[in-house]
Design a protein that fits this description.
The chain is mainly alpha-helical. It has helices at residues 3-22, 28-54, 65-71, 75-103, 107-120, 122-140. The chain has one domain (3-140). The protein has six helices and no strands. Helix 1 (3-22) packs antiparallel against helix 2 (28-54) and helix 2 (28-54) packs antiparallel against helix 4 (75-103). The protein starts with a helix and ends with a helix.
């Protein structure tokens, strides 16, 4: 299957996980299992397959920014990098939802963090940590 075709599968799969996280209060265990375990596992399998297929023929490496840029000139490796983002960001989003639920943080407060994690990964993670610190600080006071 071509990288373009796999891209067309990976994106909606990841998006379905984000929708499940947003809707997780409706069926917490099932939707969090889907978004936090099943979809990231599927993306991890796809990522691993892409790396196994595409890595050996790709030029570039991790020694410098130009090397990294050259590495991602290969469509299979670029897709592997994208799937890496999709899977890890979704996993972090699921962790945030599970952590918030366990610590009693209202889901509506977590939703903006999920949007940030979806769009900007680490910045959303940082926003969730700030929300968590603020919330737990209020609870402790």
């Amino acid at each position: 299957m071509s990288p373009d075709a796999l891209f067309q599968i990976a994106n909606p799969l990841a998006l379905s996980g984000w929708v499940a996280l947003a809707a997780s209060p409706l069926r917490p265990q099932a939707l969090t299992l889907y978004a936090g375990r099943i979809v990231p596992l599927a993306l991890a399998v796809l990522y691993t397959a892409l790396v196994l297929v595409g890595w050996s023929g790709a030029e570039g490496g991790f020694g410098s920014l130009p090397d990294v840029m050259r590495l991602f000139d290969d469509p299979t490796v670029a897709l592997a990098g994208w799937v890496h983002y999709l899977g890890f960001d979704l996993f972090v989003g699921a962790w945030a939802v599970e952590t918030a639920r366990r610590e009693g943080i209202r889901h509506l407060l977590v939703l903006p963090c999920l949007i940030l994690i979806f769009l900007f990964g680490p910045a959303g993670f940082l926003a969730f940590l700030a929300l968590r610190a603020a919330y737990l600080g209020k609870v402790a006071a």
